[in-house]
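ok so dumb question maybe but i'm new to this and my supervisor (M.) told me to 'just get the structure for Bifunctional NAD(P)H-hydrate repair enzyme' and walked off. so i did the thing. is this what she meant?? sequence i used:
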Amino acid sequence: MHQEIDTLIVTPEEMGAIDRAAATSGLSSFALMERAGQAVAAVALRRFPSALRFVVLCGPGNNGGDGYVAARALAQAGAVVVVHALGEPATLKGDAATAFAAFHGSVKPLSDCAPRVGDVVIDALFGAGLTRDVPDAVASLIAAVARAVVPVLAVDLPSGVDGRTGRVRGAAFEAEATVTFMCRKPGHLLLPGRSLAGALDVFDIGIPARILARHGGHMRINSPAVWRLALPVATGAIHKYVRGHLVVFSGPAAATGAARLSATAGLRAGAGLVTLLSPHNAAPINAAHLTAVMLKTVDGKKDLAKVLEDERLNTFVLGPGFGGAAAARRYVRLLAEHDRRLVLDADGISAFRDDPDALFSVFAEGPVRLVLTPHDGEFVRLFPDLAGDRTLSKIDRARNAAARSNGVVILKGADTVIAAPDGRVLVNDNAPPWLATAGSGDVLAGIVGAHLAQGMPIFEAAASAVWRHGAAGQRAGEGLTAETLISALDGFDQIK
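this is what came out, is it supposed to look like this??
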């Protein structure tokens, strides 16, 4: 599959449009279903060679049609196959009806299904298109399969997982593996869907890339393929001033560690110089801990205005351990007035909780200069209406927030979403669970700042920082601390 298409994420609605366009172009829709079902059978035999019996659950739509094709292929391969149907198979339409007619085995009602030791369940009930809670009969069977502790292979997406949001609709199978076709759906990447899908196999069933590109949106998996060309290029003539000068604000004397983590991460991530702006009372503590990071005292707007006279200082990180909300608001307004690029994190975000528009308004005009890095708790402080709208996916929330703030939004979590005001969205999938540790977010803010200081476009700077953060977490391993995470950051030349 073409690398650009391999990163594409499509919603269930977009996938439906892709399927229709493929049929209109002259491709046989049943041939596509045949390839999909054959792929499911191949994965089942490869992943579960010792299965005593394959129990195929077929739904009332095309996902069920894939199941009937898989059941036929498994039987032809000599496997023991039992098929259970939701609803009456005789009422199937189109390709699903053709697939059922080509399966010559018996089909039992779903209510007769009784999983037992040695079974592998192939879930072809609903797939990614589910938009309502599963019926009670399906919820009961999901519970029975869980009690029996038998593996589940899901077709497209575990039944019960909403393909657009990743949420569970009443109940959902927990699959050991999932087979999907052509492109990932949001439900494969957003939690809890990602954890319920298990290992994911994406099969190319023959839909041309031009059709995928025409009907897909602007969602991609965050990977170097998306932003590698925007990375800084090292040459023999490079020096520290070319690599940019990052500035990080420190908090008061009792809360300086978070800012130092950001500053140190920024230096490690490639900024040529990093300066920590420290209140006077915190300067001795910061000075005792800093070596390569420079230190300057700033105790108010007048001091900051003097710093801003140096045009080379164009990227700032404000928020980690910062504390004072009123000072944060004053500094942010001053940075915006001087057209600086700003990574706003932690306390910097919370400073605007009572009046988010006071933040958005100062960055509303001109090119995008703001990066927001909230976790869910911080997100609700700036975007309470978006956070409370249960119809929105995490992708929807981040995209709407980016448009409202005229900033790039990094909505953090195990399924971090990066969104730009122009509608582009990336979903990150390389972050290990042990990144959820104190100081990890401070490190991320520093990496984003370093990328911006080096002149990267703002969306690509944010996306590549999130990816490098995840890669460093994998390299540092379980039990990492923020300090070891910084040490595990690789250089740009190591990004594949």
